[in-house]
Design goal:
Blueprint lengths: L14 H24 L4 H27 L4 E2 L1 H13 L5 H13 L15 H5 L25 H8 L1 H20 L2 H24 L20 H6 L6 H6 L15 H11 L3 E2 L6 H22 L5 H34 L5 H31 L2
Antiparallel strand pairs: 1-2
Helix pairs in contact: 1-8, 2-3, 2-4, 2-8, 3-7, 7-8, 12-13, 13-14
The protein binds zinc ion (ZN) (2 copies).
C-alpha cells in the first residue's frame, strides 16, 4: 500500500462504475450457475458467448490498443467501425478516453501520481480500484494527448454516441440473439452478463497482473512483464514487457510460436488489404535490448555474490558485451547491404556473391560471440 499520506484522502466514489461492476458481477456469478443447473445452456448460446467475448477483447486489443493508442498500423474505415462497436460492447469507455488514459500510462508508467493505473499502487488499484473513485478527475476531459485521434470521424462518432452504442450493443445483441434461438434468459445471462464480466477482467489483467507476474527479457525500467499465461488470457497482450519496451510494434509476441491472436488478426487484415503500414521494431534493436538487459541482470547478480575476483569478472562481462554489440552491428549492416544488393540490378553478380560471403562470415562470427555470451551469462544466472 502507498505510504504517501495524500492517498489516504479518498476521492469521491464513482457510483455509476461501482454499480456497473458490482451488478454485472453478482448477476454473472449467481445467475449463470443457477440457470446452468436448473435449465442448462445450449451449445449455440455458449458459442455465441465465446464469439462475443472475442469480439469485445479483439476490439480493445487490436483496435483501442494497438491501432488507436499506439498507431502500430493503419486500418480501413470498416475495420475501425467494427472496433468502435466492439469497444462499446466491451463497456470500456470511448476509444478516445481509453487511449488518452493508455498513452498517459505509457508516458508515466509506475508513477503513482500520474499513471492512471499504476501497478505500484497494488493489484486492486491497478486492476479495478482506479475506476471506482475520482482519482484523476482533474484530467477527465483533457484529450490533448489524443489530438491525432480527433481527426478520425469514427472515433469522434463513437465518443459522441458512446452511451447509446453501449446500451444498444449490450442489451440488443443478447436479447436479439436470445429471441432468435429461443433462449432469451440464457442469452441475457451468458452473452450479456458473463461475457461482459469476463471481458472486463481479462482486459484489467493487462494493467494489474501483466505488471506483476512474469519475466523481463527486454527492459527492467518499469514493472511490465512477459508471461505466456497472461498472453493466453489477454489475446496476446501478456507479452507486456516487450510491449512497454517497443510500444509502436504491432506485435506483442515476436516469435511465431508465441500466442498473440491480436497480431494474427492484424496480419490477416493486412493480407486482405484491410490494414496496412504495420510497424515492426528492427531485429537489431530487439537483440541489443535483450543483450543489454542480460548484461544488467548479470551485473546486478555478480555484485550481490561474494566472489574474490568479482571486479575482473564484471570487466570481462562488459568486454564480451561490447564485442557482442560490435558483431551484432556488423552482422545487421551486412545483412542490410546484402538485401539492398539483391534489389539493385546494376551490381554485378560477382559483387553480390562477395557481399553474401562477407555476410555469412559476419553471421558466423555473431553467432559464435552469442554462444560465448550465453555461456558467460548463464554461469551466473
Ligand atoms: Zn502496461
Ligand atoms: Zn500499450
Amino acid at each position: 500500500m502507498p505510504t504517501n499520506p495524500q492517498y489516504n484522502k479518498k476521492p469521491a466514489i464513482i457510483w455509476l462504475n461501482v454499480s456497473v461492476f458490482l451488478i454485472t458481477f453478482l448477476v454473472a456469478i449467481i445467475g449463470v450457475p443457477l440457470y446452468a443447473y436448473f435449465q442448462g445452456f445450449s451449445s449455440t448460446t455458449i458459442i455465441m458467448a465465446i464469439v462475443s467475448l472475442s469480439f469485445c477483447e479483439l476490439s480493445i486489443t487490436a483496435g483501442y490498443h494497438r491501432l488507436w493508442s499506439h498507431k502500430a498500423y493503419k486500418a480501413n474505415p470498416v475495420v475501425r467501425f467494427v472496433y468502435a462497436i466492439g469497444g462499446a460492447f466491451a463497456v470500456q469507455n470511448s476509444a478516445l478516453h481509453w487511449c488518452s488514459d493508455h498513452r498517459i500510462h505509457h508516458q508515466h508508467v509506475d508513477d503513482n501520481d500520474r499513471d492512471p493505473y499504476s501497478a505500484k499502487r497494488g493489484f486492486w488499484y491497478s486492476h479495478i480500484g482506479w475506476m471506482l473513485r475520482e482519482h484523476q478527475a482533474h484530467r477527465y476531459h483533457d484529450y490533448k494527448n489524443v489530438i491525432d485521434m480527433q481527426k478520425d470521424k469514427i472515433v469522434m462518432w463513437q465518443h459522441k454516441h458512446y452511451l447509446t452504442l453501449t446500451l444498444l450493443t449490450n442489451f440488443g445483441i443478447p436479447i436479439l440473439f436470445g429471441l432468435l434461438v429461443g433462449e432469451l434468459w440464457g442469452s441475457i445471462l451468458l452473452v450479456g452478463f458473463l461475457r461482459l464480466v469476463v471481458s472486463h477482467h481479462l482486459t484489467f489483467f493487462i494493467n494489474s497482473l501483466a505488471h506483476m507476474w512474469g519475466s523481463q527479457p527486454y527492459s527492467d525500467k518499469n514493472t511490465a512483464k512477459d508471461s505466456v499465461v497472461m498472453a493466453v488470457l489477454t489475446f496476446g497482450e501478456g507479452y507486456h514487457n516487450f510491449h512497454h519496451a517497443f510500444q509502436y510494434d504491432y506485435r506483442n509476441a515476436i516469435k511465431w510460436w508465441q500466442y498473440d491472436p491480436t497480431k494474427w488478426l492484424i496480419q490477416i487484415l493486412s493480407l486482405t488489404g484491410l490494414a496496412n503500414s504495420l510497424k515492426r521494431i528492427s531485429e537489431e534493436k530487439i537483440a541489443k535490448a535483450i543483450a543489454t538487459q542480460e548484461l544488467n541482470k548479470t551485473k546486478t547478480k555478480l555484485i550481490q555474490l561474494s566472489l574474490p575476483n568479482k571486479e575482473a569478472i564484471i570487466e570481462n562481462l562488459q568486454e564480451e558485451y561490447e564485442q557482442l554489440v560490435i558483431k551484432l552491428n556488423a552482422y545487421y549492416s551486412a545483412k542490410k547491404a546484402c538485401l539492398e544488393s539483391k534489389k539493385d540490378q546494376m551490381i554485378q553478380n560477382v559483387e553480390k556473391s562477395k557481399l553474401k560471403q562477407h555476410y555469412n562470415e559476419l553471421k558466423l562470427s555473431w553467432s559464435a560471440q552469442q554462444q560465448v555470451w550465453q555461456n558467460l551469462v548463464h554461469q551466473y544466472a
